[in-house]
Amino acid sequence: MNRFAVAGLIRDRINILKSEQVGLKLFIHSDQSRHEALEKAISELNWVLEQLEEVEES
After folding, report:
1. What's the pLDDT score for residue 8?
2. Buried b (16+ CB within 10 A) or exposed e, 17-49
3. Apex 56 CA angle, 54 and 58, nearest 5
4. Concatenated DSSP letters for 8-49?
5. Rounded distance, CA 7 to CA 33, Å?
6. What's the pLDDT tens digit per position in 1-58?
7. pLDDT confidence of residue 18
8. What is the pLDDT of residue 27?
9. I need a surface site. Which of 8, 36, 49, 58 has the fewest CB within 10 A?
10. What is the dihedral of CA 44, 48, 51, 56, to 10 degrees?
């Protein structure tokens, strides 16, 4: 196998990895959005719980 063939294989592999990287970036962004939504929901539920506990104490 000559160096041009090896270079071609390397170039092909780079393109495959770049494609995987783009897909992973979208997944990470989606995952981050879910994490933020869960964090907000947890925060809101903690607020509701605090309100209930205050009512119980009075």
Report:
1. 93
2. eeeeeeeeeeeeeeeeeeeeeeeeeeeeeeeee
3. 70
4. HHHHHHHHHHHHHHHHHHHHHHHHHHHHHHHHHHHHHHHHHH
5. 39
6. 898 899 999 999 999 999 988 888 888 888 999 999 999 999 999 999 999 998 888 7
7. 92
8. 85
9. 58
10. -150
Residue 17 to residue 11: CA distance in whole angstroms: 10
Structural tokens at position 13: 């592999």
DSSP SS3 for 56: helix
CA nearest to 35, candidates 43, 24, 45: 43
pLDDT of residue 3: 87
